Task: structure prediction
Amino acid sequence: MISPYGEKLKSMAKQEDLFKKIIAHAKEYGFVFPSSEIYDGLSAVYDYGPNGVELKKNIRNYWWKAMVQMHENIVGVDSAIFMHPTIWKASGHVDAFSDPLIDNKDSKKRYRADVLVEDVMAKLETKINKEIAKARKRFGESFDEQQYRETNPRVNGYIQQIEEIKKRLYSAMDKEDMEAIKLLIEDLGIADPVSGSKNWTKVRQFNLMFSTQMGSTADGASQIYLRPETAQGIFVNYLNVQKTARMKIPFGIAQTGKAFRNEIVARQFIFRMREFEQMEMQFFVRPGTELEWFKNWKRERMKWHTAMGIPANRFRFHDHEKLAHYANAATDIEFEFPMGFKELEGIHSRTDFDLSAHEKFSGRKLRYFDSEINESYVPYVVETSIGLDRMFLALMSYAYTEEKLKDGSERVVMKLPPFLAPFKIAVFPLTKKDGLPEKARKIMDGLKSDFMCFYEEKDTIGKRYRRHDAIGTPYCVTVDHQTLTDNTVTIRERDSMKQERIAIDKIAGIVFERLRTK
Ligand code: GAP
Result:
């Protein structure tokens, strides 16, 4: 008999195995390659291949359409990666954009000290959930979880331990007291997850911004940073945009682009990268209305995620208990990745912190005159911020499917939402002769200005179907001898594998219908 703990290990191993398969699949089918691979790679940096770049572009376009095209009061910008260094002083990144790191002297592994402590709390949380699951089974219908949490001595003990750890961790983090964090690690008896050693260095603050020099040294080069978020490019352009696009509050500014962070623990493939892309929108509102807008954007963004067709139970909100000093509300939209529920997007009510700081540091007024109330003020901001690469990984994790078919064979199919798939239609001549390639090319030429199409004549039709299942192409069109006589083709749908004989001039309509977004 396998114990519940054994079951859990088995399921963890299965998830880890799934994650490895997704990474291998991403490489084999030209979605994602390790950067600089012929030089043994560069840690936490990745390149996108021919299929990856299409999928990434489609996600970006879906986001842009939902945020900018569908909202008359949201416009876009594309600000530079390099910005005046004082911007990062004003935003707080120079002084406070850091993580506490700790090294293990024996394994030489580096960790985020706060994450080591959070892992202890997560383990206690798992213990609580197990106790509750057992009790629910025992008491059945009459089980009252709240009462059990409050009265069961073991569960109550775990809850108190978590509260105590939280109190110490948050207080140490707020005071930037690195010694207190080290003491907490020692008191909790935390060992290196790899080596089991408790031989730790001191905890140090590590700033996550990359810096470089602008200009030649003779001219007096200045230190500048690679932006760690795209948001500041929006804040510093807020008045330019408001004036030139004649925007009235409430209005938003959207931007997609690269961001850079020198992450301490960079692992889990494209989940945590050192160079990544963000899709951010800052929504400028009248002070006092920000919490209503925060609720609105929570709703809107969750709608965006579920409209892709991914089941709603793969997403959840995680409201922040501990707020950053500039926020008065914050939540994460978490997605169930193979390694569990993790942050996919952040929604933050950032008050007037950023604009006020830029007013102070730049000496320029960043106010808005609200003619409806005849008042001038620094707008409050609600931000939505999602990592494009992380969304890409969420989609790959959802879509990767291994199927056993009725005839006993197996296939891997990427069940990507069709409108996001790299290619929409693959066109195959059944054979390479008898004028079939010419006819297939003609069909492809008629479709390619509307859809990303792929032409293939190598290998059996079965193998060609499998290749396109593996990259998520929703439709394969096969041209055979009958096509030459009656202008019909077979069209095969990816998920059901159903084939239908249709007229050539019906292809575009069928595909268009399937690609329509809600
Ligand atoms: N402007 C707010 C901001 O940058 P954040 O929570 O630090 O907030 C927003 O980042 C989103 O950017 C995250 O939810 C995540 O999707 C993505 N992101 C952050 N760091 C990342 C990294 N190292 N690699 C990939 N994506 C990352």
Observations:
- The two ends are 48 Å apart (CA to CA).
- The chain has three domains: 1-83+223-399, 98-207, 423-515.
- The longest helix spans residues 113-139.
- Residues 229, 231, 261, 263, 272-273, 276, 278, 280, 343-346, 383, 385-387, 389-390 surround glycyl-adenosine-5'-phosphate (CB under 6 Å).
